[in-house]
Design brief:
mainly alpha, 155 residues, 3 strands, Arc Repressor Mutant, subunit A, three-stranded antiparallel sheet
Length: 155
Amino acid sequence: MDATPRWLTPEQKAAWDSFIRMQEKLIGRLSRRVQADSRMSPADYLVLAKLTESGDGRMRFMDLAKLVEWEKSRMSHQVGRMVKRGLVAKEDCPDDGRGAFVVATPAGHEAIAEAAPVHVDHVRRLFVDALTQDELDTLARLSDRVVAHMEKQPD
């Protein structure tokens, strides 16, 4: 027996539509700026940012894929492209023969060090400056609540 769909109320749909429109516009504009400013793809930037935020610039392959919410195959293709350009290297995991580390190379560290200040300027201009600190705090709490809720739900 099919359950009756739980349609969104007009207010819920308006909130959802506004959120999606903001997210798509923001990510689209930031992605175009990263490409134009640094000649890195948005995926390159994301991988290098996550690696360099980890402290030593290295992360287990599957941990990185989970962190950015990518399938193993997408991460594999992305890392392969970045290896060819010298931005990252893959290293075997000594305690797990099937595991691997993705490591930011010196060229990768240099690329993210050049791109990050410009990127953060765009994030500030397009996002942070539009909101008060109280609004940013509220948005962070709401975002954390939604992420925690999603993590309890089946994929």
